[in-house]
Amino acid sequence: MELKKLMVLTAAFSMAVSITACSSNNNGNNGGNAAATTAPADNATATNAANSGDATAAGDIKPEEGASLLVWESKEERVFAEEIAKQFTAKYNVPVKIEEVAPPDQVGKLTQDGPSGLAADVVLIPHDNLGKAASASLLLPNDIFAEQTKAANTEASIVGSSYDGELYGYPRAAETYALYYNKSLVKEAPKTFDDVIAFGKTFTDKAKNKYGIMWEVGNMYFGYPFIASTGGYLFGKDGTDKDDIGLNNEGAIEGLKTFVKLKEVLPIKSGDINADIKRSLFSSGDVAMDMTGPWELAAYKQALGDKLGVAPVPTVDGKTAITFSGIKIFAVNAYTQYPNAAKLYAEFASSKESQLELNKLVGSIPTNNEALKDPQITGDPYISAFAEQAKNSQPMPSIPEMGNVWSPVNAALPEIWDNNADPKAAMDKAVQQIKDLNNGAAAK
């Protein structure tokens, strides 16, 4: 999955969500957007009723005369985009063209192509790219459908779809990690990390390269439960206050005690663990449990068949595990010539029905509350486990300062794991580095 690529493949880029500008060659633009655009769309017509809070406003919106849309989608999810585009055109008589652009690349491409009128009308982005796009005025707010979007979707997805108090996104899928386990080795999913340690003591054998559990211990994305579950946090309320950093508070240090204890059943260096090694060992039965995301589900199903189990992440020091989550969101290009049609598409393609279609086609986790209760989701033992964990997740902060967090913390965790550094001292150092980077960025 693209979000996985963004967050996991790049400990080097530190999952900092730096946006690399793509080639501006966009030969697939729809004809309506070919003309150069020098100013963002005039959205007054589309929002007059909505600004009054009138619940009927969403029902009153109509596509502009002669509207046509270009939508950027991920390659992996194109099958969904084609189906939804067909349904949307049938309902609204608005042609929709799909162009493949990796979601992590879309804000960079929008920055280049938006003002010239070459960008898509509707974009699909990981929520932690939202701050850059919104602060650059590249997106139209989700105003007309704001109330129904907020009512229909999980709180975490609404937080992830908002920036600086404004709702921009139309959430369509959540992504977090859970605990995969081999049922032939682990008879029942562990409820606590103490249970994990107890099992690991009976299974781990470093000489045979066998381990009770494995995860990318040097990667803060996966290490966040050992910080947040017991009271640590990033950037204050809803991840919006760059000056309120709780990565080294009493709760965070308490949770890191569990992190340290797990070294007993995973006695290897952090640098000796990566996704490929982990996948190989879990698939062969040499690792009994793996903490990772839904992007591994297809491969693990193939490797283990009915021996595969998925459960929420075990509790940390008696507290429900809090994981990081990413939200994939639709957003509307501020330079679109067809804001009504684009907003209609974003809402249509993120509805309950559309999210269930996306799950059916590519195995995504819905954000729509009703979709999460649908038998299609609750009846799937794998997806329902991820959905359950997603309810206890925190969207990664989308403020630009989030880019300053990864490198310091991804250095602190290996210091604690590999070199027995004192967790408080290591996290104090990381927090100071983050503050220095934040202040340096603000001074520019």
Topology:
Elements: H1 2-7, H2 44-47, H3 57-60, E1 69-73, H4 78-92, E2 96-100, H5 103-113, E3 122-126, H6 130-135, E4 139-140, H7 146-152, H8 155-160, E5 162-163, E6 166-167, E7 170-175, E8 178-182, H9 193-203, E9 211-214, H10 220-223, H11 225-228, H12 250-261, H13 275-284, E10 287-292, H14 297-304, E11 308-311, E12 323-333, H15 339-348, H16 352-362, H17 369-372, H18 375-378, H19 381-391, E13 393-395, H20 406-419, H21 423-443
Parallel strand pairs: 1-2, 9-10, 12-13
Antiparallel strand pairs: 3-12, 4-12, 5-6, 7-12, 8-10, 8-11
Helix pairs in contact: 13-14, 20-21
Q: Would you kindly provide a brief summary of this structure?
A:
With about 450 residues, this protein is of the alpha/beta class.
